[in-house]
Amino acid sequence: MRLLSSFLLLSVLFAAGCASNKPAPAWHAEVFSEESPFEYRTPVSAKALCAVGQRALLSQGYQVESSQPQAVRGRKFFQPAPGHHMELGISLVCLPTPVGAVLYANALQTRYELKTSTTSAGVSVAGMGSISLPWLSDKDSLVKVGEETVADPEFYRRLFALIGAMENSLPE
To answer: In order of start, what are the domains of the chain with their CATH numbers?
Structure first.
């Protein structure tokens, strides 16, 4: 009996230890602040600002997926190492203000890895059992392994600096 209770206690402690490795929810660290690295203010109109944002993305090799008068979405693909793939998607939303417009930018980075899977075939004979044999083909596929919002203020400073430089070349 003592051995059984010791085993149960160790099992509970092990399970509790595994549960403590779980990361805290992301919203616990979320801070809502009036200061935001995701916005850029300018005296030009919202429509003109989104047009400049679209040209800025195109000038950096982004594929523009959708463009509306007040919203632009683009993405760019990267392969930092063999078997690893990244996609960076940027959304721009331009809203009018009493003195011009504000541009809100949001970038989402998605990571993929090349995974190989081997298929196997099974044969079952009544009365004798079953056997599983490896199939002679391997399948490679890209599997999403992570996705996160880019929160680095320096990334957005560089984006807004390019937009500001291109905005300054607009005809008056």
So the answer is: 35-120+139-172 (3.30.530.50)
State how far the alpha carbon of 17 is from the alpha carbons of 6, 10, 12, 22, in Å: 16, 10, 9, 10
**Are 108 and 85 within 8 A, CB to CB?**
no
Q: What is the pLDDT of residues 50-82, one digit of tens each?
A: 999 999 999 999 999 988 889 999 999 999 999
The CA-atom distances, in angstroms, between 54 and each of 20, 43, 49, 73, 82 are 45, 18, 9, 8, 30
- The token duo for 59 is 């000038």
Cα–Cα distance, 69 to 39 (Å, whole number): 18
For the chain, the farthest-separated pair of C-alpha atoms sits apart, in whole angstroms, at 88
What distance in Å separates the CA atoms of residue 155 and residue 112, rounded to the nearest whole number? Answer: 21
Contact partners, residue 81, CB within 8 Å, separation at least 6: none
What is the pTM assigned to this prediction?
Answer: 0.72
Task: For Cα atoms 40, 46, 50, give the angle at the middle one, nearest 5 degrees.
Answer: 75
